[in-house]
Design a protein that fits this description.
The protein is α+β, with helices and mostly antiparallel strands and about 400 residues long. The chain contains 15 helices and ten strands.
Length: about 400
Amino acid sequence: MLSEAIPGVHSVAVGVWVRQGSAHEPSGEVGISHLLEHMVFKGTMRRSAREIALALEGLGGSLDAYTSREHTSFQARALGEHLREALDVVSDLVLSPRLLSGDLELEREVVLEEISTVEDTPDDLVFDLHGERLWRGHGYGRAILGTRESVTSITPEALRTLHRARYLGENLVVAAAGNVDHALFQARVADLFGASAACGRRPPVPTPGPVRIGEEKLVRDSAQTHLVFGTDLVPHSDPRRYALVLLSAALGGGMSSRLFQRVREELALAYSVYSFQSFYGSAGLGGVYVGTRPDGAERVVEAVRAEYARLAHEGLPADELEQAKRQVKGQIMISLESTGARLHRLAGFALYDEPYIPPDALLARIDAITERDAAEAAAEFFDPERQFLVRLGPEA
């Protein structure tokens, strides 16, 4: 249980994180974590689906949820004076869903429509295809939504079993940020969650084995060829992630980045080009996405590989490293003006078993990255020969 008071704001963001995500799922129940996230909104022991929707919207607030590789999250935003109601609704969702068979048949169709949306959105689909192949069957490569076959086969009892096993005890992290009094928040959380059954924390995700390298072409009738380069990175606890974030920002983190300037501004071969990275409990993921016309795909691949090679062999010069630091620090501080961003950051310390780092200390860690730190990380993780490339688009 964590809270952070933010002076001068009227709203509060509150959330509950469950240590259960797609990477924890057995192969026969892919997508069950996400389906359970949907199902809790169909009704609880005290509220119908409509009453859940009205509980905070009627007060000017909102409810949201998401499923990731390693956890499921339920959040609410409301005025600080309505924190009690927000906590009550979120705790009701997490602890007391009905999980009825009839509701499952309806919500299953909603998730199947969500899967169809991804299938019709190739710049989303290509990431699922890349992850599945990169991780060679490890849980980090499973589609969070699951597949049509797996979602269709999940039973009400499987959902109830998962809920009984994971939505309790040390698997829960409760946090709030904004207009919040910690003593009152602590007392209310104790009232709402104190009766939850004791339960040890679920085991961490197993460390992945070697990931795939090379290239795979997947044929799809589309106007563009969608390219994702990527490789495994360090886990969240590894201090090298700060250097990796700076390198990613320099490579493809904005309009001034190397890839944007080269691929879009100089070659005019793409509208969308960017780098990305995620850091999980047992590993990380980083890479590059580009969408381009099929006849320009080869030139784009050559350009991206050349920028990877330049970064791996030369690192970042002092001026470019300082620019990346200013960019990343600015993005961090601007994001922290949002109570939602503060909430997610706060919960992250508990989810990854890390001590709280004040914003100023975080900025100091970024400033401490040296040219040598960046060069060593670039040499290890940005070598083009280490990347795995998926091409999704029409046949050449």
